[in-house]
Specification:
It is a single chain. The protein has 19 helices and 9 strands. By secondary structure, it is of the alpha/beta class. The protein folds into 2 domains: 210 residues, Rossmann fold (3-Layer(aba) Sandwich), CATH 3.40.50.1820; 120 residues, no CATH class. The protein has a 9-stranded mixed beta sheet with strand order 1-2-3-5-4-6-7-8-9, sandwiched between helices. It is found in: Endoplasmic reticulum membrane; Microsome membrane. Belongs to the peptidase S33 family.
Length: 420
Amino acid sequence: MYKELAVALGLGAVFLKAQDGWWGVGACPQGPEDDSIRPFKVVMQIMHPVLFPHIKIHRHICLELFWTVFACKQGLICAYFSPDSGIDIHYVHVKPKNLAEGTRAVPLMMVHGWPGSFYEFYGIIPLLTEPSSPDDITFEVIFPSIPGYGFSEAPRKKGFDTVCAAHIFNKRMKRLGFNQYYVQGGDWGSLITTNMAQLKPNAVKGLHINFAPSGQAGLLMMLSILFGRRFPKLFGFTEHDVKRLFPTMEKLVVDALRETGYMHIQSTKPDTAGRGLNDSPVGLAAYILEKFSTWTDPEFKNLEDGGLERKYSLDDLLTNVMIYWTSRCIISSMRFYKENFGKGLNQPHAKLPVYVPTGVASFPNEVMHSPKLWVTQKYHKLKTYTPMARGGHFAAMEEPQLLAEDVQNFVKIVEKRKKK
């Protein structure tokens, strides 16, 4: 184990030197970097709200333009701006209110993805910072906006990918005074937090993800694809694994092509498509909410209303849309795909294993399904792999209770408060 950790630390150090950069205007200034922290508050004024045809979603957007729902919630949460690597980073930092004397909260950073935002985690905050059971761990939660998303400043130079975001977020945790901490993420957040663990395995005490895309296809993975349907037990496949993976052409190729058109656009022409979305709040809402429909449950695409209100409130969904609209970040958020995929799929971090203790919450309706066998090919210290009872891609927003329980279970095992 010590040899593996030494290799991970060495590779991480090489990575750190190669990828840590200055993303602001001009060259990196000499001397220590500004580390001031400023309270963040949303101030907005919309002089001419646009009128839309009187269908439900359009009418609701008109009302949401005044953003009273988020303004009220945001006033209860401590949000900050702080410069890092030349750009301002927005993050929310919530400390437990009623921490028992003699106990310390466990620091946890949670990272969102696209087309989500930091707002995805608002429902899970009290479940982690004010747990109902005295046996549960109390967390101190930090959730930042990825640079170029929401209220974090977009990088001013090309080349900003998940590894660069991981550098910034590791530095943020250190500047907040945490020498060791846990990280959690889904979508891009799962890749960023994985990179955080690769870069700083001595600081990241545990990694929990609810989106685990398979790494590079090795021999064992290829054999499982070829023979897993006929010999599922040989590869540890469950009934759900078989259902999600086979027939291979339909489940891994046709379905992927059907649902990833946005990815091809954003990986090649983000500025072109983004300009149109920046000019139309309804167009922006349609583009984002379509993902909250099909990525929550693929069967929702057959419903006239997309099934949105079966899992979410329109207030929450449109608050997320409004974060994109008011910050004008849709182009920079889409560009993140080009910066990552434009470098190819064979980047060094894609080959690096993860030796940090890892937990995976496998939600049944996740866009990409990775059986346990595939996950262990990359995450070598997998402590928990939980087939979740229900839920899809936006786990923290859709099923906050289930996600919080799985995070609790994982951290208890790593902290040795519970047997595996």
